[in-house]
Amino acid sequence: MSRISSLCVYCGSSDSVDPVHREAAAAFGRLCAAAGIAIVFGGGRIGLMGCCADAAMAAGGEVIGVIPHHLNAVEIGHQNITRLHLVDSMHQRKQLMFELSDAFIVLPGGIGTLDEAFEIITWRHLNLHDKPVVIVDNDGYWQPFVALVDHLIDQGFAQPAVRELFTMVARVEEVLPALLALPDPARADRL
Ligand code: AMP
Fold first, then answer.
1. 176 alpha carbon to ligand 1 midpoint, in Å?
2. What residues form DSSP beta bridges with 86?
3. First-residue to last-residue Cα distance in the chain
4. What letter would DSSP give residue 127?
5. Domain edges within the chain
6. Domain 6-181 architecture
7. Are 94 and 117 in contact (CB under 8 A)?
8. pTM over 0.85
9. Which of 31, 120, 126, 173 has the greatest count of CB atoms below 10 A from its CB?
10. How far is the CA of 184 from the centre of ligand 1 (A)?
11. What is the pLDDT of residues 43-86, one digit of tens each?
């Protein structure tokens, strides 16, 4: 775990979701704070993003948001965090979130979370990085994601090895142990 000092959290911006996911996001924020790991996230104060950031801040953690001006302008940027980076575009935001993070954690979310998850997995597939990606299948939320990846493989559009580009865990409590258990470097021989 010594090589992990910051984790990027991708998660939903909706507030109209099952509380089981809001609780998981908050629990993950507390776990990172307790482990001394900084959270990098999309910078919003809404949805699971807000739950995770608020809980980490309340537990004395470090939280770094990266938000484009156009989203901050409509007053959804989180002001009560350690640092909020304002950038010009969504692409700059994703790039900075990538650079600031040692690994990527996917909590339940919507199309924005899916976009971020698939992009970071694709970048890893293309050997643009070798940082771990952990998907948290909280309450079985990401089973359709697993089924979709299986479908891509079944239909010949992806190799079975793409399954090794990410690690699935069932609960947020398993994320830090899973990262600890990964070989270092995470997977030099896979591609
Ligand atoms: P979604 O899963 O569609 O709710 O989108 C959430 C993800 O997209 C987060 O991980 C953010 O990085 C990004 N995102 C979407 N909407 C916002 C927002 N209003 N403020 C900040 N980030 C957002």
1. 23
2. 67
3. 24
4. T
5. 6-181
6. 3-Layer(aba) Sandwich (3.40)
7. no
8. yes
9. 120
10. 30
11. 999 999 999 999 999 999 999 999 999 888 765 777 899 999 99
